[in-house]
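Section 3.1: Structural characterization of target chains.
Under the original work plan, the team committed to producing a structural model for every single-chain target entering the pipeline before any wet-lab resources were allocated. The record below documents one such target. The sequence was received from the expression subgroup and is listed exactly as submitted; it comprises 139 residues.
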Amino acid sequence: MMISTRGRYALRVMIHLAEHAGDGYIPMKKVAEQQGISLKYLEQILPALSKNNLIEGVHGKGGGYRLSRKPEEYTVGEILRLTEGDLAPVACLQRGAATCARKDTCKTLSMWSGFFQLTNEYFDGITLANLVSCDRSEK
């Protein structure tokens, strides 16, 4: 599994909004400039975050985006599943996938299922607040 640019940028945007939670609505242009993300790309990401109630947007003068909840109420898993899909490592585990004809004899299904479970548990165990407070010297 590889996280796409869309998923990585969505996390950067959400972290930025969390870091500036007390500043009201942050203009998309400002987020783009400060994060080094093209405005055109942000215009593809922010509506999805807004539509799914992760962020709130206001148009016009003084408008922009802000988090709709507290940073500790978001998980990385929630954000990545929204932007990436269900994070399944193989097609047969994806949501809505047809039942594989080899399911009953597949020697690797339990391995992939375990990896999928670990991935979800890992990302669901990290909140936006955790990322905001992350000490970069630990990396």
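The two ends are 22 Å apart (CA to CA).
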